[in-house]
Amino acid sequence: MLKPAASSVLWLRAALIAGVTVAATPALAQQTVEELTVVGRHGVGPSARSISAVVSYRDLDLTTESGRAMLSQRVRLTAQDLCRQLGAANMGATGTAPSCEQDAINSVGEQRRVAIADASPRALAEAPPSFAPAAESQGVPASATAPAPNGN
Questions:
Q1: Is residue 113 part of a domain?
Q2: Is 66 domain-assigned?
Q3: 110 by DSSP, 3-state: which?
Q4: Are 75 and 108 in contact (CB under 8 A)?
C-alpha cells in the first residue's frame, strides 16, 4: 500500500499529464493541411494505373475570386502533368468516361469545396511557392549526385 504522500504525488502527476493532453488537443485539432491531392488515372482493369500529387494553397486567400482561380490553375496544371506522366495527355473524353485530365481535376472536387468553405481572409505570403511540374516529366532526374572534386 502506498503512503498518503506518495499516492498524492502519483495523483498529481496523472492530473498534470491529463491536463497537458487535453490542453494540447484543441491546438492539434485546429491545424489545417492546406493542400489538395490530385489523382490522375489511366486505363481500366488490371492495366489501370494512377499517380497523385499534392497542390498547396497555403499562400492563397480562397475567400477571393483570384485565390480560387489560382487554385484551379494549379490543379489544372498538376492534372496535365500527371496525365502526361501516365501517357494519357491530350486524350479526349469518351462517351462514358471523362478525359484523364478532367478526371484528375474532378478528383479534388470535395477537397476544394471544403477548403473554400473553411477559408478565412488572409494576406498573401511575401513569396508564394512556385508551381513546377515533377522534374521527371521534364526529362531531368529529381535528384543527382555531384561528382567529387578532382584529386579527392
A1: yes
A2: yes
A3: helix
A4: yes
Rounded Cα distance between 101 and 84, Å, is 9
Cell of 82: 500527371
What distances in angstroms separate CA 45 from CA 48, 50, 72, 74, one per listed residue? Answer: 6, 12, 30, 29
pLDDT digits (tens, 9 = 90+) for 14-55: 555 555 444 444 554 556 789 999 999 998 888 899 999 999
Domain count, the chain: 1
Q: How many CA atoms lie within 13 A of 66 on its CB side?
A: 7
CA 67 to chain CA centroid, nearest Å: 17
Helix ranges (H only) for the chain are 4-30, 65-85, 100-106, 109-118
Domain that holds residue 50: 32-126
